[in-house]
Design a protein that fits this description.
Blueprint (H helix, E strand, L loop, with lengths): L2 E7 L5 H12 L4 E3 L8 E8 L14 E9 L1 E3 L8 E4 L6 H9 L3 E5 L8 E2 L2 E2 H6 L9 E12 L6 E8 L5 H12 L3 E11 L2 E2 L4 E2 L24 E3 L2 H8 L4 E2 H4 L9 E6 L2 E9 L4 E7 L4
Parallel strand pairs: 1-14, 3-12, 15-17
Antiparallel strand pairs: 1-3, 2-3, 4-11, 4-12, 5-6, 7-10, 8-9, 10-11, 12-13, 16-19, 17-18, 18-19
Length: 295
């Protein structure tokens, strides 16, 4: 089985567990997700199957949209409600004050990822260090918050809900933490739902519980949708055979005259996606990044 499945990940399981469930339902060993969701989070989780798993890395750079609930007045070691409470403070924040601070977290900002994350420090995952009670100097990273909109104002539990559109590498837990710091009372993430990722909306997803060996294939989408943002490069039958056998394709024969180093292309023959090629401008040829089908 080969293709793309758009899963609405339920709360309480890891992305790895979701992949395992898809493996069982699809009876396919080669399955991979394209962007981890924490166990407490729900929402869009694109999953590639079969030879299409080679496309996974091409979807990780995409921007995403989240609906997040944030609680003021407490900070935790994980920056979300699943962690241990480190500090509790009184909350004296108006809705106008909250809106003003939210505007400070739009555009290009620098964010420090949470200690409980899969980022590696000297070859070790940060969350492993955190579980051992250790700390590490985590460098700030540049991210972009394209939009941060207040959906529901502060309630009686000092919680509010935002909708945010962010670039790759953004941690919503860190965003919640930093908003709390700016407000002077601390904050932690209590709910998170990813509503958009890699060009796909939550309305296109199927709930994981609905998948079974009887219906998995009916939810399968064409894997080309995962890389639809890349330019198309149509080849002849001879060129298709050469490409799929590991051979490069010359710019001249492809009539490529305007490209940039490293540019990726969807290499196609008769409406079939053969794989992904890249522009090797030094050799003036299309090299092979991955092959997922035969002509």
């Amino acid at each position: 089985m080969k293709g793309l499945l758009l899963i609405d990940k339920p709360k309480g399981i890891t992305s790895f567990s979701a992949v395992s469930a898809v493996k069982r339902a699809a009876c396919e060993k080669r399955v991979g997700h394209t962007g981890t969701l924490d166990p407490m989070a729900t929402g869009v989780l694109p999953i590639l199957l079969g030879r299409a798993t080679a496309l996974s890395s091409l979807m990780l750079d995409a921007d995403k949209r989240y609906r997040a609930k944030i609680k003021l007045g407490i900070t935790t070691d994980t920056d979300d409600i699943t962690g241990e409470v480190l500090e509790a403070k009184p909350v004296n924040v108006s809705e106008a004050g909250l809106k003003e601070v939210l505007t400070e977290f739009t555009g290009v900002i620098h964010q420090r990822p949470p200690m409980y994350s899969a980022i590696k420090k000297d070859g070790v995952r940060l969350y492993k260090l955190a579980r051992e009670g250790k700390t590490a100097d985590i460098p700030f990273r540049e991210i972009t918050v394209f939009e941060l909109k207040l959906l529901q104002g502060l309630d009686g539990e000092n919680e509010f809900v935002v909708d945010t559109h962010v670039s790759k590498g953004t941690y919503i837990r860190s965003l919640a933490r930093d908003i709390g710091e700016q407000l002077g009372c601390g904050a932690t993430l209590t709910e998170l739902r990813r509503t958009y990722a890699s060009g796909f909306d939550i309305s296109q997803c199927v709930e994981l519980e609905r998948l079974s060996s009887d219906n998995a294939e009916s939810f399968l989408l064409n894997e080309e949708l995962a890389v639809a943002h890349l330019p198309e490069l149509c080849v002849t039958e001879k060129q298709a055979v050469r490409f799929c056998n590991g051979g490069q394709l010359s710019f001249e024969r492809l009539r490529l005259t305007d490209t940039v180093p490293g540019r990726l292309y969807r290499v196609k023959y008769c409406d079939k996606l053969l794989g992904i090629g890249f522009a090797d401008t030094e050799r003036e040829q299309i090299g092979i990044k991955c092959i997922i089908d035969n002509p």
